[in-house]
Amino acid sequence: MSNVQSAYGSADGPMIEAIGLSKFYGDFTAVRDASFSINRGEVVAFLGPNGAGKSTTMKLLTGYLSPSEGRAKIAGYDMCQDRIAGSVCLGYLPENGPLYPDMTPQSLLEFFAQARGMPASYSKRRIDEVINLCSLQEVIRKPIGKLSKGYRQRVGMAHALLHEPEVLILDEPTAGLDPNQIADVRDRLRHLGRDKTILLSTHILQEVEAVASRVLFIHQGRIVFDGSLAELHSKGSNLDAIFGELTAESESLSA
User: Fold this and answer.
1) What pLDDT digit, counting tens, does each position of 83-137 carry?
2) 16, 63 Cβ separation under 8 angstroms
3) Does pTM top 0.70 for this prediction?
4) CA gap 37, 19 in Å, rounded
5) Structural domain of residue 19, as residue ranges?
6) I want to staple 56 with a disulfide (CB 3.0 to 4.6 A). Which of 11, 12, 30, 67 is the partner?
């Protein structure tokens, strides 16, 4: 472990923590009273229908949005009060994350390394490492705007991994990819899950089975399930049955 990395994630408690998180937009509730914690080394899948509140919850956890109520912590840092310190421990890949289309992957990674204040020798080594890890060698000097969706996802992943974060929050990392690209991303997640704490948003149960052992399910802004993959399977024989049962339970509770 590098000297830079060893300074990260000094907290002994959960690496990701939601404490009564809520987000309101006028009369609309995007997330209500979400509470959960994820320990060091866990890979947790975040499931739910479209519009259920997955992306909003992730934005609250990363400090991208401020909660209307509650708190979010990364590696023990309150993301409202200590967002800069928390972001040192965090790699975030938003869905359709913004990338600068006129930049190349090389120049983008150099820009973000400089923005993070990474020492020159360390940043050069890390850029080389994430280029290899994300298989960007063939496109490293091509404009990002000219790259395929799959390669843009790889660039976003390389950016998220650049500073060796201990926590990764990934929002739909395989959305819009073809089957070969999906398999490639899943392989990378399995590799990263050996020593990272990962929260992975998806609505595809097959993705959960490939990379995760624990599942959070959100519906209508509320956490309606938090348990192991085996416990999730006990609720139904297939994805449709599981989604149907959990959303029905949620709707009956809110009625």
Assistant:
1) 999 999 999 999 877 799 999 999 999 999 999 999 999 999 999 999 998 989 9
2) no
3) yes
4) 8
5) 1-89+204-255
6) 30
